[in-house]
């Protein structure tokens, strides 16, 4: 994965697809947030609750994916300012994260992939627990962590006392999905693909041609687990086009 970034020849970005998908994910997150915070848990089936938590966690991860594409300038290539505003909004809604800090970290991740200087990499330890907390600490430094707890506390107080939202709904459909999303982003989008590099520096992607691979790639981490190598090879490609980057690479082999 430590190879020079390149552009995918013949690939032309669709100016509006990335923006449309980004706004769609953001809109679904907001709609599901309002819906699930208002349902009475006492009359909801456990299957409904579990499904809602999984959906909310997946959409929560989607917010970070939207912000990630904004960091690469993929959301709206013709309007950089609008692109960055949407990226800022996505990480703010995700967990009151500082967009500029996240963008700087991600730039270092591409510059120093799987080596010292990579904020997403845990040099000297492959233990997933240590790696996870190092990963979180990079995106929540002390100041950002204080900001996060402050804004989360204010938001929870407002929702509890002004909007009369039940605390169990907040825990199940907001706080728990946020935790699950961080685990999803870490495990499928960071730990697994970079662990492959640590154990095999000459790693090359396997050929994923069946439809189940494509479905799992989308479900696991919006293609950034299955096609993480391709993302580093072709950082100009948005998340929804990474399978095409893989096909392009495979065709040359």
SSE arrangement:
Blueprint: H1 17-38, H2 46-71, H3 80-95, H4 99-111, H5 128-139, H6 142-161, H7 167-199, H8 211-221, H9 228-233, H10 242-252
Helix pairs in contact: 1-2, 1-7, 2-3, 2-7, 5-7
List keywords for this structure.
disordered N terminus; 253 residues; mainly alpha; 10 helices; single chain
Describe the protein:
The protein has one domain. It starts with 16 loop residues before the first helix and ends with a helix. The protein is mostly helical and 253 residues long. It has 10 helices and no strands. The longest helix has 33 residues, at 167-199. The protein has helices spanning 17-38, 46-71, 80-95, 99-111, 128-139, 142-161, 167-199, 211-221, 228-233, 242-252. Helix 1 (17-38) runs antiparallel to helix 2 (46-71), helix 2 crosses helix 7 and helix 5 packs across helix 7 (167-199).
Order of helices and strands: HHHHHHHHHH
Fraction of residues in helix: 55-70%
Percent range for β-strand residues: under 5%
Alpha-carbon distance between the termini? 17 Å
How many domain modules? 1
List how many beta strands DSSP finds. Answer: 0
Q: Per the principal axes of the C-alpha atoms, what is the gross shape?
A: globular
How many whole angstroms does the radius of gyration measure? 19 Å
**Overall pLDDT, averaged?**
86
H/I helix tally:
10
What's a concise summary of this model?
This protein is mainly α and 253 residues long. The protein has helices spanning 17-38, 46-71, 80-95, 99-111, 128-139, 142-161, 167-199, 211-221, 228-233, 242-252.
